[in-house]
Amino acid sequence: MSHDAPGDASPTLLFHVYRTLTRLIAPFAYRKVAAKLAGQNVSRLRQRERLGYSSAPRPVLKGSSPLIWFHGASVGESLAAITLINRLAERLPQARFLLTSGTATSAAMAEKRIPACCQHQFAPLDAPGPVQRFLAHWRPDAGVFVESELWPVTLSAARTQGVKLALVNARLSERSIASWRKKEPTARYVLGLFDLVLTQNDQMAQSLLSLGAKPENVFPSGNLKAGAEALPVDATLEAEMRQTLGDRPLWIASSTHEGEEEAVLAAHHSLLKSHPDLCLLLAPRHPERGDEVAQLARAQGLSVAQRSKGAPVDDTVQIYLADTLGELGTWYALSPLVFLGGSFLPIGGHNPFEVAKAGAAVLTGPGYSNFAETFPPMIAAGGAIEVADAEALATTLDLWISQPDTLDQARRRASDFAQQQAGQLDQVIDRLISGLALESDA
Question: What's the CATH fold of domain 235-422?
Fold first, then answer.
């Protein structure tokens, strides 16, 4: 069977070399990913999904109802995919859905949040054997890839089998764009495999067009993360924490990265002078860094209770270190003030919609390139404030803690902004249904 996919651009020599290499290294790559999944208590049966051996039967479909496959790398992309799956399921009640992702955390999250009409599998490695096995079993009618998931072998094989393809919430880093630019004929071939490309903003649309995406298929559509449901809240834990904290004011620094905690701790240190009973709930992006972050805080003379060690939060605790996974929704519900990490350094920032939907106002550093279409209008609307350093962070927090009316206004504006952005989802759903020729059998 020919592996040339339909479309204007043909597979390049580089594509064929990549395809051959992935065939050769797939067994070694599998060993590595399987070991990682095993370390996170994923069964051997489910590990083998990465080789294309499915652990679930293909759903039985009525008439010409489609099986629509969504793929997101990790938790954030999978949440965006689930938002679309829920909305498409309303419009196409007979359709069935498959969600694939690559990490144990995204799989655990998906099992809790996907609707009954959807199944989760680990994505096959981007190599001919795993991809062919996967496609032969699932035979999807359409494939929707989220953000930056450009897997050449997977996309080419799917297109060859007649699968309609979309790239949604498209966002490539500047480094990734520069890398693709060096191999432009291959970029043109890979991007040409998509029937539809929905980008997060105009700038990304222009970048993908410059790499060879077909103009008639590219549409800026805003950030899909605006439409995701609010993060889940553990009501029992929330009530316990409220009782423990009593009347103490609380602020949150969430998803901080190495090199950022110093500024957060310096801001807290400064705030304690005017708000001596203030508590900081610090949730590092990578919980395994908990001990290291605790050490940083203690070095600044701050008292710390570490959640992973079951330490209680008494009146003397100045920092509650939430070095755990899956509890952000509960933390956001506790405090009207959230600083989002990954932004004091040029990391790209994190999702402000999750904060706004929990009813909190948002603070960010200047390094939010991953949300370039979101923060400037959110800041202009008064729902978020950009702070350059520890001093600016402390000043803004002090203002909001001292002036509850000003804070309430910022919270309302953040919430209104998130709601208004979520309205773009209907347009995205319309484009997916028409661009991928999905029709309701209802």
Answer: Rossmann fold (3.40.50)
